[in-house]
Structure prediction request, 555 residues.
Amino acid sequence: MSENAIERESMEYDVVIVGAGPAGLSAAIRLKQLGGDDVSVVVLEKGSEVGAHILSGAVIDPCGLDALIPDWKEKGAPVHTEVKTDRFLMLGESGSLRIPNFVLPPLMNNHGNYIVSMGNVCRWLAEQAEGLGVEVFPGMACSEIVYGENGEVKGVVAGEFGISKDGSKGDSYEPGMELHGKYVFLSEGARGSLSKQVIEKYELDAECDLPKFGLGMKEIWEVKPENHREGEVTHTMGWPLGWKAGGGSFMYHLENNQVYVGYIVDLNYKNPHLFPYAEFQRWKHHPDIASVLEGGKRVAYGARVVTKGGYQSIPQSAFPGGALLGCSAGLVNLPRIKGNHNAMLSGIAAADAALAAIKGGRSGDRLEAYDAELRSGPIGKDLKRVKNVAPLNARFGPLMGGMMLGGFDMWVSNLFGINPLGTLKHGKSDADSTGKAEDYKTIDYPKPDGVLSFDRLTNVSFSATNHGEEQPSHLKLIDDTIPIGINLPKFAEPAQRYCPAGVYEVLREDDGSNPRFQINAQNCVHCKTCDIKDPSKNIIWTVPEGAGGPNYPNM
Prediction:
């Protein structure tokens, strides 16, 4: 054994699940519902508590809950605010045009859906899981994959603590523990660090299209009672992004005079001067939005990337020893801005496949039945209908591409079960889509007024983000000369702008000389944008010590 080898204790389970989101918790619940005491299940969550790192819009299609826990209402699920009004607006700088609901494909209708806090839904799901005998461990970041003798995924390393900033292991170092399973489910959300490794190792993306992402930013507001319309759902497109960059907004009125406001910017934007966070803040000053927020107060902020590649970007989701669940596989329906129902359905499907395999005496192999169900079952059917919207957006813009051509493709698919445009390709990755700074105009953004709009660092304080000051940065540069040597002259170093938490800065002397790149890892809200959008693909997001990051109350 190498003198640098770390000895760790290990624990054995039937199924090890990484991530206590809707996919992972649904899988855990389903395993215990069907297997009872005969199957052992553990869920490992990097947040300080279940729900601490959950951020979603969210209007939820309850079909996933119906399939998992049919009596969820009687059991007290925090799903109360049914959608009453559904509006879709095209915004100009000072006005808006409402798109009639009958023009939109039926799949865009939110009738029967609910406005929820997915953080609270996941907390409730965790209670249901624990009641069935699932072991749920928050504050346990999974930093490594453990491989078996035949190259299969055997388990994960969780709970490593005490590494100093210089990488040394001090007196307080804890090596963590290996948790082994007959199968390991990765439900880390979009751009999970372990999922990336597994996709690369087993070439799970060899036959699928590129993954695509959007950056979603969200605030919770408490508004004046006279401005609150419980059950109203509003989506917008157009101003301030315009019709060249893809993206749009949401505004959801839930109970207790609270409103969720959020903005999603597609990360395939070309202009490196674009500042997604500033677009979000500017959007709140539109008359249709400001009229709701004026006199209210923002009470929470967060950000997270959203998968938007759709059906053609789903990698093979079964690998030797485990499976990719939920957003780790990229199961968001982009036009509907919904993925939680598919996440839950994927957890159910993975659990069914794993339990059948375990009962058959198998372990460590590929759960081919899961991958097949993902593509041919309700998830695949949901995503096939909308598979061309994202590539059309990228090619022709959100008006001509996403709304007109995409709407036509969705309507025909909804009526006849076929996509008349076939299956379109996405083209470039989000990183490669970034253009040279000299080819685009800089954008003059208004300063935040501190009433409706806020600077990034002030807003980050409303995410309750914290990381241990003595731990090394979890944001790694492959080459530390690239930010100043390449990204700054070629792309005006877009990390300064694409990060919604102000993690990356270019600092200079008073006379503007001697630029240097600084990483403020303490601010990181774990959105993963840097791992996706950096034009040189030079930044790698890794997990910090367990419990580090945001502490969202009810996102």
Notes: The CA atoms of residues 393 and 402 lie 5 Å apart. The longest strand covers residues 297-307. The domain at 9-71+120-208+315-384 is CATH 3.50.50.60 (FAD/NAD(P)-binding domain).
